[in-house]
Amino acid sequence: MKYKPRNSPTASLSVPSVSGAQVSPTTGSNLLAWQPSTWPHAPAAVDETFVGTLRRIFQESILDEIANVISDAEKSNGDLQHRGYVVAIAIMCALDTISSYGYGARNSAQIPHFVREHFPPEYHAHADSIVKLYRHIMIHNWNLFRVSMTPGTEPISSDRGMPSVGLKHLFAALQFATSDFLCKLEQNETLRTRTLKRYRKLKNSARP
Q: pTM (2 decimals)?
């Protein structure tokens, strides 16, 4: 991974911690986003309440957690050098998970479709590279061989066929895509059906 030091100040990404602090059991309607046994049962149809629940699960157990790691790394080191690779892997896993709701859990094959449908337009041409050259290579080989990633907010681009993206830009794009997916969920019948199926399967697999 190629890193470029950044000296300009960045906005705080810190949010309240959502994992590890609460250890007491929960009952009733108390939802712990990272503990599926506390999720409400899947409704018969997607409605505003269900979308709100899913938004909370994504935000508290995925996006806020990554944001906290980024914030902690910047406070300790000034930037994401020597932390960025772990953050990048978390982002790829988050992308795999979130995209599996509306597009099926297909061993990450659903990622390009999700990217083209929900990421900002500049990512659409790179949808296949994101899964093949970033997701697969980083997670399975712990290195980047044919792409580049910087620790900042540089937008995704291609230089002589080699994609490059700033880690924080990629995370912001994932946040955008998650929000876009949730906004379209109530209006798209296919997304509704697949998302309820995925949610129901995960909820039913949980043990108290």
A: 0.82
